[in-house]
Predict the 3D structure of the following.
Amino acid sequence: MYELAEDVLALLDVRESDSLARWLGERLALLHPGARWRVLRVYPATASRIKDLPKYEIFAVADSARQDDPVPAGPDKLLAESISGRRAMALERTDGQVRLLATLIAGSEVRYVVELSGSMPGAAEDERLRSLLAVTGRYFERLVEAEMDPLTRLCTRRVFQTQVDAGLRRRDLTHYFSIFDIDHFKRVNDTFGHLFGDEILVHFAQLLRRTFRASDLLYRFGGEEFVVVFGVEPPQEGLGPLERFRHAVESYQFPGVDRVTVSGGCVRITEPSAPTATLLDNADQALYYAKMNGRNRVCDYDALVATGALAPKAAPKADVTLF
């Protein structure tokens, strides 16, 4: 017999928010054997990127892979209402079939929707189901909070490895690993004070979100260092988005400080299984080169190696667990 206590104990073994939605789908299927389930990841998008939509529209895609062109949730009325209304649970009955939508919410945003469909007698009155969703929802918020930098609200190193592995699934995109470092940030802190320095970091993170897609991976690695993992459609090159971001920072008026610049280094990810430690090291070499050669620029590791500006390093025999 199914017992909620078993799920509560099993829930504690889920250590990352990205894993929790799939775990919930599996648990809901235990409550209703034979029902089909899937996980939808929810992305916000703006009308500037997608035509003929309201200013803000919610998108949801099957979580088998991260996508840069999500499917609009609008035509699906129940899904759209669940997301916009931030409903913990929604039920729809049609011809003896039941469709259940359970949302996982962090702050003001719905991050995932777990969908269960099929024959589910008594689902609306199942107290165990409601208890499971309530406990899982609260735990999801705690996981997300632990994974986010409290100042910039970007992800930290804690979930870096798992998210990067998942983010490289789309084979139709060319992926890049990049590192940004705010130029002369110590001088800003020493001259204007740490409160102004923190304000710069907050605005810097906001510029990252505006420049890159909702499905791109953004991290604050510590201090003034940020990591972005993103994809472009061939034959586009990764320097395009990176240069747009560099220019956005250069032209932005930061409160109390006015002008700030950023340097960056990137490397193309040629294999999804490429060791993360190698990607980090190569991008860091390109960043260091940018810092030592004028700052306020973005350098591509492969281009630097091709011109002889950098000597390639031998790849490690095995990947290194970074965090």
In short: The chain has two domains: 4-147, 157-306. The beta strands are 36-46, 56-62, 89-94, 97-106, 109-118, 174-182, 217-222, 225-232, 262-269, 298-300. The two ends are 39 Å apart (CA to CA). Residues 11 and 101 are 19 Å apart (CA to CA).
